[in-house]
Design brief:
The complex is a heterodimer of chains A (about 160) and B (about 300). Chain A is α+β, with helices and mostly antiparallel strands and about 160 residues long. Chain A folds into two domains: about 80 residues, Beta-grasp domain (Ubiquitin-like (UB roll), Roll), CATH 3.10.20; about 70 residues, Orthogonal Bundle (DNA polymerase, domain 1), CATH 1.10.150. Helix content of chain A is about 35%, strand content about 15%. In chain A, strand 1 and strand 2 form a beta hairpin. Chain B has three domains: about 45 residues, 2-Layer Sandwich (Uridine Diphospho-n-acetylenolpyruvylglucosamine Reductase, domain 2), CATH 3.30.43; about 120 residues, Uridine Diphospho-n-acetylenolpyruvylglucosamine Reductase, domain 3 (2-Layer Sandwich); about 110 residues, Enolase-like, domain 1 (2-Layer Sandwich), CATH 3.30.390.50. The chains are: A alpha+beta (about 160), B alpha+beta (about 300).
Chain lengths: ~160, ~300
């Protein structure tokens, strides 16, 4: 076992973990943050996407100990208090989810995209989420949601 | 649920420290960079190292330096950094073409250049690109540093010249005037490994091909190189007819195998067609006619 200290959504946590523990399982099972979903287990589906410092990563393919001393942001850290992130509001407005399984990963990638490119084209959005799989919506409403989030932010 | 077997873990604090740890634990240790090849292999229990040496903290191995007539790429450079670099795009269009179709944006954020090369998957795109560019790999151990041609780096599927106590630290690419390059890949879906892929770098002297490098991925080309097609083109005119002939030669000399990504004869067809097409792009770029991407 190793002592792992890291910051998740602004809160510092310390836990004893095995080096082989994957970050997604650490977040869900050790910290109880079950917003991040554990999907394909092969870094294909993107349901487990979280931010590691400043960039989204697939947390089923990162060891928890690799995040030592770093900052993690999960879907639970998107909203500020009770105020939803513009991405979350847009997903609600545009019906950007059906079953919700891919949604946390999609929204964290969308937040990252909009932070770097506040006015993305539809092609930019599709490229950004190309490593994430949705089995319900055919992506149309997800893409629409991300574009709406950009539009809403522009109007504020 | 896929979980790696029990493993010890150590975080390298310097390159020297990483090499010391490697020397101590080799051959039971594996270097952990982005982990996007190693961790899936460990989950499937195809690899069961006793110790992981995490080099993600070695930011001094994460760089893109253009010095004189050489681009130096640190082993820990993330795929996304290669793709976002204007310097890389200006001198090595082949790398931007390739990076656009390597995995997906999220994987590219964390996966590393050195990790991809050392994984040595026979379908790995950068291996073909660096072979086409005639790069050099810098490999270090406590005993010293050695340089290996990109064309001698891979010794077989999932095997490289990097010994158990060695670390690939840098990739060097020559910057030569009068050149153009490109990369084309056919994959079944976004982010997938190639069914077949070809990269080319061409240096022109007037209308003549002064030098050429052709790299092939996923089609069973020895060391990822279409050597016979290069040999044919060197000293010949950059004509449509000659580029087509080079494609045929590349297809004849590779040895694709049928697998879940496609039958061997289709992959051979791709080797032919993609070699010809990517040579056209490289020649056009060398002439300054086409600065656009291949898509």
């Amino acid at each position: 076992m190793m002592r792992l200290t890291l910051t998740v959504n602004g809160t510092e946590y310390s836990r004893d973990v095995e080096p082989r523990l994957l970050l997604i399982h650490f977040l869900r099972d050790d910290l109880g943050l079950t917003g991040s979903h554990w999907g394909c287990d092969t870094s294909n589906c993107g349901a487990c996407v979280v931010w590691l410092d400043e960039t989204p990563v697939k947390s089923c393919t990162v060891l928890a100990v690799m995040a030592a001393g770093r900052r993690i942001r999960t879907v639970e850290g998107l909203a500020r208090g009770t105020e939803l992130d513009p991405v979350q509001r847009a997903f609600a407005q545009s019906h950007g989810l059906q079953c919700g399984f891919c949604t946390p990963g999609m929204m964290l990638t969308a937040r990252w995209l909009l932070d770097h490119n506040p006015n993305p084209t539809e092609a930019d959005v599709r490229e950004a989420i190309s490593g994430q799989i949705c089995r319900c919506t055919g992506y149309e409403n997800i893409v629409r949601s991300v574009l709406l989030a950009a539009q809403n932010a522009g109007e504020q | 649920m896929q979980v790696p077997a029990h493993v010890e873990y150590d975080k390298a604090t310097s390159v020297e420290h990483a090499l010391t740890l490697l020397a101590r634990y080799a051959p039971e240790a594996r270097v952990l960079a982005g982990g996007h090849s190693l961790i899936p292999m460990m989950k499937l229990r195809l690899v069961q190292p006793e110790v992981l040496i995490d080099i993600n903290g070695l930011t001094d191995l994460c760089y893109l330096n253009l010095t004189g007539d050489q681009l130096r790429i640190g082993t820990l450079t993330r795929h996304s950094q290669l793709l976002e670099s204007p310097v890389v795009g200006e001198h090595f269009a082949i790398l931007h073409d390739a990076e656009r179709v390597i995995a997906d944006p999220i994987v590219r954020n964390w996966g590393t250049v050195g990790g991809s090369l050392c994984q040595a998957d026979p379908s790995e795109d950068l291996s073909a690109a660096f072979a086409a560019m005639k790069g050099t790999m810098v490999v270090r151990s406590l005993d010293g540093t050695r340089e290996v041609s990109a064309r001698e780096f891979h010794t077989g599927p999932y095997e490289t010249v990097v010994a158990a106590a060695e670390l690939l630290t840098e990739i060097r690419l020559p910057v030569r005037p009068g050149g153009g390059s490109g990369y084309l890949k056919v994959a079944r879906r976004a982010g997938d490994w190639p069914v077949g892929a070809a990269g080319a770098a061409v240096w022109l002297a007037g209308e003549m091909i002064a030098d050429v490098g052709i790299g092939l991925a996923a089609v069973g080309a020895t060391h990822f190189v279409a050597a016979e097609a290069e040999e044919y083109l060197r000293g010949r005119a950059a004509s449509e007819e000659n580029l087509r002939r080079a494609g045929e030669i590349a297809a004849t000399n590779c040895r694709p195998v049928s697998d879940q990504r496609g039958p061997a004869d289709y992959k051979r067809h791709l080797a032919n067609e993609l070699t010809t097409r990517v040579l056209r792009i490289a020649v056009a770029r060398a002439r300054g006619e086409d600065r656009r991407g291949p898509e």
